[in-house]
Amino acid sequence: MSASIYPENAVPPSSSSGSLPSWRSSVTFNMRVDQDDQEVALAGMLRPFVGDQMRAIRGTLETAAKNATGELTLDFKRLKYMNNVAFLEINRFVRWAVEERPNLKIRLIISSVIPWAMRKFQVMEELYPNVSVEVYDKALYPIQSVIEDEDFVRVLRTQEKIVYNHERKILHRHGLRPGMKVADIGCGLGDFAVRLNAEYKPEYVTAVDHSRAFLKHAQAHARSLGIENIEYQYGDAAALLIPDDSFDFVSCRLAIQVFHMPDQLMKELCRICKPGGRVYITNEMLACVTGYPDQDLIRMGYRRYLELSRMVGMDFDIGVRTRDLLANAGLEDIRSDLIDINNMNTDPNNFAKVVESWIKFCGDVAASASADPVIFEEIGIGLRAHVSAILSDKGYANWPILAGSGRKPERLMR
């Protein structure tokens, strides 16, 4: 059984069983109570001026604690903002629950979207033995520190340029038009948002990424160009702090492949897309990389690359599933294109720099995963053979990426 409550000054949005209600701009927060799963979920913004304004929340939490057996879950991963007054009231509730129900375990699910609150919640875990804190998005991005390396950032800009030079030729076929409201999820350094802003003149762009380092680069780049209609947000792609049905065009480029819950990410992309709008994704197909000479070495290297990536929850061959991902998300009018990057249609020197950066990337991933050193050795051999093929006047080398999109039906079941 589920129930929802709202602040007195809020207009309750429509709700559907089993999911959080849709947000409207007039709603400060919403709450869902699931008595069967013994879970209370809060979403939106908690910004009371005084503790009394949290009375409705405190009352619901206390009722849930009195009725729960074993463990009560407080799910805060969709909170976009929480001030200190709200935190203190939640802390008072936890202290009350620990005293009133000493045998009840309390599980707090939070995200890194509110970093200061994350630190304070973790203090609760230290103070109360029966309280546990789970940072929801901590395990979702296992290679984030690797890709935030400054050397990798420089090469990533080159990679973005290479891909967009080919991609720009197909975007119109996937529904991108001037004047649209666009969301770019997993925006990285923000180059795609900047380029489509110049070429397609969207009404505005919201670009979201889980890397604060990347967003810092993206914001600085946009400011240097005098761009004012791109909003960069820090957030988790699997639990976006964005209202339903908000954008005409939702893109997620080379990001699903580094996320171990692709179906959940697709669900979020579809949720924030307007009915009739399009969801556009791109992903690599590294099992299809080939080259000449040393074709066998190149293929061996990328097989081991895929093996390593899957150890940490990534799948750099998920591009082959593009049409399946779009169809399973409930999208229609599915379109797909092969972005065939090779050393005959791309500057070989830039292409080679990108592949060389993957060797270091694999070394860092291998170290973080405590992988067999033989795996990294064979990756290095194969990728260096790929680099040689790219730079050879008589050679051939490719890098295939599959792009796909689908239209959100007027009524998409979630």
Main features:
disordered N terminus, six-stranded mixed sheet, Transcription Regulator spoIIAA, 414 residues, single chain, globular, Rossmann fold
Describe this structure in words.
This protein is of the alpha/beta class and about 425 residues long. It has 12 helices and 14 strands. The protein has helices at about 55-65, 85-100, 115-125, 145, 150-165, 190-200, 210-225, 260-270, 295-310, 320-330, 350-370, 375-390, and strands spanning about 1-5, 30-35, 40-45, 70-80, 105-110, 130-135, 180-185, 205-210, 230-235, 245-255, 275-285, 290, 330-340, 395-405. Strands 7, 8, 9, 10, 11, 12, 13 and 14 form an 8-stranded mixed sheet that branches. A 6-stranded mixed sheet has the order 1-2-3-4-5-6, with helices on one face. It is globular.
